[in-house]
Amino acid sequence: MGVVQVPKVTDKKASLRKMALKRRMALDPTYRIEVALSVAEYAGDLDLPDGAIVAGYWPIRDELDPRPLLARLRERGHLLCLPVVAEPHLVFRAFDRESDFEPAGFGTMAPGAAAEELRPDVLLMPLSAFDGVGNRIGYGKGHYDTVIAALEGTGPVVCIGLAFDTQKVDTVPAEPHDKRLSGILTESGFQRFAQPPGAASG
């Protein structure tokens, strides 16, 4: 009698990632632009503390473009920064309308080394897939998992995913080291997730 092979968590995540990204890629480009503009209208629903430093991201491929939302958050008085791939983890450089940008790894852009490095209070994060309780699947590189762990060592950090509704899956198989999202923002609006007992952020 053969041994039944139980799929590994990493294999399950890889399958869900592929499925969700395929659905995202199939979205009409015009629709993606419309969603990017519409989610900016939910800036107030995020209920961020006054003066919170917000890290966005430079969109690549068919990711939800956060730039209209970031512009709205700047209008609300928030300092903004963008991630740069570095060791031992991502760093975040401040930017404004006058900033010069340069390649920052994996097709992204960010301010150059002369820009001030900031410690973000809020991470607006791209992702592959998410579920209804705030578990997320990234792109498999672990950049955000690593930097979240580092940031939590210096204080709380709010993690908000940006995605399209079509990236939602029934259940993400979470592992002990996985960081649950504080909330998710899609074209349907902002959904806040309850944090598990002992969570460092919310």
Automatic annotation (TrEMBL):
GO terms for molecular function: 5-formyltetrahydrofolate cyclo-ligase activity; ATP binding; metal ion binding. ATP binds at residues 13-17, 136-144. The keyword GTP-binding does not apply. Gene3D superfamilies: NagB/RpiA/CoA transferase-like (3.40.50.10420). Its EC number is 6.3.3.2. Transmembrane segments: none annotated. Substrate binds at residue 63. Belongs to the 5-formyltetrahydrofolate cyclo-ligase family. This is 5-formyltetrahydrofolate cyclo-ligase. It comes from Roseibium aquae. The lineage of its organism: Bacteria, Pseudomonadati, Pseudomonadota, Alphaproteobacteria, Hyphomicrobiales.
